[in-house]
Amino acid sequence: MQTDGERRVELWIRPIRDGLGEEHQTLVVRLERLADEGLVDDVCVRTWGREVDVESDTAPTKRDAIVRERLAECRLWARTEGVALPTLDEHATVGSGRMGPEHDAVVLPPTLGIVFRDDEIEDVYPHERDDGTRTLADWVETAESFLGIDRDHVEV
Fold first, then answer.
1. Which pTM does this prediction carry?
2. Which own/partner pairs from 132-140 qualify as long-range (CB within 8 Å, at least 24 positions apart)?
3. d(C-alpha 18, C-alpha 30), whole Å
4. How far apart are CA 116 and CA 8, in angstroms?
5. Which residues does 84 contact at the CB level (< 8 Å), separation at least 6?
6. CB 85 within 8 A of CB 75
7. So what's the pLDDT on residue 3?
8. What are phi and psi of 121, to 5 degrees?
9. What pLDDT sits at residue 93?
């Protein structure tokens, strides 16, 4: 695992009604531990809703604009790397409010992790390669092993 350059992780999650689910809390704690160890310079947890409008020319909100931009960056990374991002392939037709017009939307996954190195995407999780699926938890586990961290002991 390379340690040169600035590395930051964005964790995009769809929170449950009362906040983060246990799997998200554990992942955040593990990422923060990597930051404490100096392998990651910054961890940013962002939330998103169930879907984002991809049909209209302009995003309805600033958050939607950021989400659409990130999704486009992730798809470009996937094409360049020759991997699939199956969690970003689900689409739905949704309405705006009770009476608003229907539009096409991407159904956002419960969890998406983006690892940046010097402002360039290094990895997006989960992704699929010919030999299987890789998750952000897999990346964290590899990083913990690299640093000699006991990954079985995580206090949430």
1. 0.86
2. 136/9, 136/11, 136/27, 136/111, 137/27, 137/30, 139/113, 139/115, 140/27, 140/30, 140/31, 140/34
3. 21
4. 5
5. 78, 127, 128
6. yes
7. 61
8. -70, 125
9. 80
Q: How far is CA 109 from CA 17, 33, 47, 55, 152, in A?
A: 15, 24, 11, 18, 26
Burial class from Cβ neighbours inside 10 Å (0-12, 13-18, 19+) for residue 36 reads: exposed
* pLDDT band per the 50, 70, 90 thresholds, residue 56: confident
Whose tokens are 């940013």? That residue is 44
Question: What is the percent of the chain where pLDDT is above 70?
Answer: 85
Tokens of 121: 């995407």
Q: Which of 50, 152, 53, 131 is nearest to 93 (CA)?
A: 53
3-state SS of the chain is CCCCCCEEEEEEECCECCECCHHHHHHHHHHHHHHHCCCCCEEEEEECCCEEECCCCCCCCHHHHHHHHHHHHHHHHHHHHCCECHHHCCEEEEECCCCCCEEEEEECCCEEEEEEECCEEEEEECEEECCEEECHHHHHHHHHHHHCCCCCCCCC
Relative to beta strand 51-53, strand 132-134 is unpaired
Determine the residue type at 124. Answer: V
